[in-house]
């Protein structure tokens, strides 16, 4: 049973709880033709919800699915849905597409005309804001020719799950993950930044990892505030030598990192500034 209040919009109806949507004949269940996106609603704000709704449609297209909703329709449904959570402080907004059937030519390829859509919303209280710890993962991101790395696809996440499980097994919160040739890509659930001598650096978007919506927003806000922000090829050694490390993602927004393996970090001024800039922008975007 779901742990929290959950509402799902599917085929024109709002259903509570955990309605059964896919069966043993579903292509999605058998061959993982699923894509999703995630946006966090909190304090009446859903920063960049429009971009998250656009991205889920792009993810669907890269999976060979055919989006059945426009981004604007998904956004409108999300705002309708959050009203069902009266008084709740934070809700995760998760639009999803999946394939029901194989194509005419092959049971392996998905039939784009069998694409289905659901929008699932559930209560997701904000975390405690405590900085997390990272360890370098023995597992890596796939290269773009080995997986649909440009899509937010469910089939990519078992690899992330084993990174997190392995890191947690060694007492860390999350994993610092490299790309196929060993440069830093991201963490197992967020994008990653480092600060060195006042310059803000983040791995260059080389298509092996999700160039996140929060990442783009934070780069823009920091540059507007006068910071030198560069996308660069960065090694684990660069991160170990950093003054500050922080992560970005829709779920936790901007979070500081307190430890990378045996190296400890204090929460630094740039991390704090990036957090404040993001929150101020999110609050102002509601007034606009
Ligand atoms: N990388 C991975 C693997 C993620 O799961 C996420 C969270 N969606 C991100 C990066 C951050 O992306 P965004 O800012 O668009 O949420």
UniProtKB/TrEMBL annotation:
Pfam families: Aminotran_4. The keyword Chaperone does not apply. One of its GO terms (biological process) is branched-chain amino acid biosynthetic process. Its cofactor is pyridoxal 5'-phosphate. InterPro entries: Aminotrans_IV (IPR001544), Aminotrans_IV_CS (IPR018300), Aminotransferase-like (IPR036038), BCAT-like_C (IPR043132), BCAT-like_N (IPR043131), Class-IV_PLP-Dep_Aminotrnsfr (IPR050571). Acts on leucine, isoleucine and valine. This is Probable branched-chain-amino-acid aminotransferase. It comes from Ferirhizobium litorale.
């Amino acid at each position: 049973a779901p742990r929290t209040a959950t509402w799902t919009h599917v085929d024109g109806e709002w259903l509570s709880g955990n309605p059964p949507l896919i069966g043993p004949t579903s292509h999605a269940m058998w061959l993982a033709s699923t894509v999703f996106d995630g946006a966090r609603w909190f304090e009446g704000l859903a920063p960049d919800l429009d971009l998250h709704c656009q991205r889920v449609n792009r993810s669907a297209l890269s999976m060979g699915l055919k989006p059945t909703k426009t981004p604007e329709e998904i956004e409108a449904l999300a705002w309708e849905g959050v009203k069902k959570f009266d008084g709740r402080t934070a809700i995760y907004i998760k639009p999803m597409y999946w394939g029901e059937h194989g194509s005419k030519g092959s049971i392996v390829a998905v039939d784009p005309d069998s694409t289905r859509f659901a929008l699932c919303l559930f209560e997701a209280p904000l975390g405690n804001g405590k900085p997390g710890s990272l360890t370098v993962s023995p597992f890596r991101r796939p290269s773009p020719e080995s997986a649909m790395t440009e899509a937010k696809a469910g089939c990519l996440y078992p690899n992330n799950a084993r990174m997190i499980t392995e890191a947690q097994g060694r007492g860390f919160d999350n994993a610092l993950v490299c790309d196929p040739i060993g440069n830093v890509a991201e963490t197992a659930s967020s994008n990653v930044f480092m600060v060195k001598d006042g310059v803000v650096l983040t791995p260059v978007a080389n298509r092996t990892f999700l160039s996140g919506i929060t990442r783009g927003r934070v780069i823009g806000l920091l540059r507007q505030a006068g910071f030198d922000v560069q996308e660069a090829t960065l090694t684990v050694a660069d991160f170990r030598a950093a003054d500050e490390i922080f992560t970005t993602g829709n779920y936790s927004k901007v979070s500081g990192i307190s430890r990378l393996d045996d190296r400890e970090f204090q929460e630094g001024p740039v991390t704090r500034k990036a957090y404040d800039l993001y929150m101020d922008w999110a609050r102002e975007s509601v007034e606009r």
